[in-house]
Amino acid sequence: MINQSLLVKIKEKLPGVCLANQAMGIPTGVSNRHVHLSAADIEALFGQGYTLTPFKDLKQPGQYAAKECVMVVGSKGSISKVRVLGPARPTTQLEVSKADCYTLGIKAPVRESGALSNSADALMVGPAGHVHLKSQVICAQRHIHMNGLDARMLNVVNGQKVRVKTEGQCGLVFDEVVVRVNEAYALEFHIDTDEANAAGLRSNDSVFITD
Amino acid sequence: MINQSLLVKIKEKLPGVCLANQAMGIPTGVSNRHVHLSAADIEALFGQGYTLTPFKDLKQPGQYAAKECVMVVGSKGSISKVRVLGPARPTTQLEVSKADCYTLGIKAPVRESGALSNSADALMVGPAGHVHLKSQVICAQRHIHMNGLDARMLNVVNGQKVRVKTEGQCGLVFDEVVVRVNEAYALEFHIDTDEANAAGLRSNDSVFITD
C-alpha cells in the first residue's frame, strides 16, 4: 500500500499530479441517529438474556439494523424510536446529529467512532429499564469505509483526511473526511442527516474524492 | 460595478488572478424555519385588523422577527412555533429546511426567495384561523446579501454564483451560493439549519468566498 509519507513526497515533487482517483465514485450512506449497544446494556434495556433481532442488513458486512429501538432523553427533550444497530459491541455508543443535540439539550462532540473520552451524556430508555450513558454520545465525524484494494485504487491510506465533492443544486465539498481502511469494510461515504440534507444527498448517491 | 462578462474576460486572460477578495470575512446568518405573511393572511391567522408585533430586529435593515408564531401542518406531521418575520409582504412564503420537509411530509424545492412556481403546499394554523399555502413553501437557496460597495470589494456581481469556504473540524466549501446585491442589504451569508449543522457554523461566524 502507498504510505502517507510517499504520497507527500510525490505531491512535493509533482504538484500537478492528481493523487486521488477522482473518477471513482463512492456510494453515500446516510446515517440517521442510532445506537450500538453492549450485551449488558441490551439486557438492561430489553430484559435478562435478551439478544437483538436483525431487521435489515447494512452495507458494512455483518452489521445490521435491529428490530429494537430505544428512547433517548436529554435535559431539553427526548427522541423516540432511535434504532439499535447490531451486533452487540464491547461499549455502548450513541451517534446523533447536531440537530438531535439541540432537541435533546446535549453537546455531543464530533468524533471518530470509539473516541468517547469527554463526549456527551444522555438517558436511554427501553421497555425493560433505562441506562445512563456517561461520555458515550458523539456526532460521528464524516468518513469513508473501504478495503485495501479500494484504498489503492483511490490512492489514499488509512487515517488520511480527504475532501469529498458532491454535485447538484446543493453541491458542496466536504473537508475533513477521514479514510478508514479495513478488509472487512465495504466502500461507503458515511455522513449524518444534517450533512446529507445540506448537500442534497441520499444513500447510494455517488460522491468523489477531490483535491 | 464590474460586470459578469468583464470578470469572465479577466479570468480568461489571467487565470492566476484571484477575482474574489478572499480576505474579507462575511458574517453567517443561520435561518431557522420561518414564514413571511401577507396582510390578508395575517388577518386570517390572527384576526381581523391584526398587525404584527416586532420582537427582535434582524440584521437585514427593516426586517424583524415578530412576536407571532404559527403551526405548520403537512401530511406526515406538524411543527409548532414557526416564527413569523415582518413586515408583511405581498405574498406569503414559508421557508423550511429539508429536515423539516421530512417531519411535515412535504417536498419543498430549493429556490431563491420569491421563486414559488411549482413549490410545495402546507397548512398554516394560527389562533384565529388557518391558511392553506398552495405552491408557497420552499427551502431557501444559500445566498449572500450585500450592498454595492460590498460587491465591489468582494469583486462579485448580483446573481453570480460563488463558492463559500468555512473552517474548523466540520469545514466545507458550499458551491452554488447566490450573490444578491441591493443597497438595502447588510452583508450576510444566509444558510438554513441543516447547512449550519453540517458545517458547524453559528450566526456571526465568518466565512470566505473562495475560488
Give keywords.
metal-binding (chains A, B); 211 residues; alpha/beta; 14 strands; PTAC (chains A, B); metal ion binding (chains A, B); six-stranded mixed β-barrel; 18% helix; 5 helices; Barwin-like endoglucanases; 40% strand; homodimer
Fold and architecture overview:
Chains A, B: Pathway: Polyol metabolism; 1,2-propanediol degradation. The structure is a homodimer of 211-residue chains. Chain A has 211 residues and is α/β, with parallel strands linked by helices. Chain A contains five helices and 14 strands. Chain A folds into two domains: 4-29 and 142-210, Barwin-like endoglucanases (Beta Barrel), CATH 2.40.40.20; 32-140, no CATH class. Helix content of chain A is 18%, strand content 40%. In chain A, the strands form two sheets. In chain A, strands 1-13-10-12-11-14 form a six-stranded mixed β-barrel. In chain A, strands 2-5-4-8-9-6 form a six-stranded mixed beta barrel. In chain A, strand 11 and strand 12 form a beta hairpin. The two termini of chain A are 20 Å apart. The relative contact order of chain A is 0.22. The A-B interface holds A 97-99, 110, 141-142, 169-176, 193-195, 197-200 and B 97-99, 110, 141-142, 169-176, 193-195, 197-200. Strand 12 (172-181) of chain A pairs antiparallel with strand 12 of chain B.
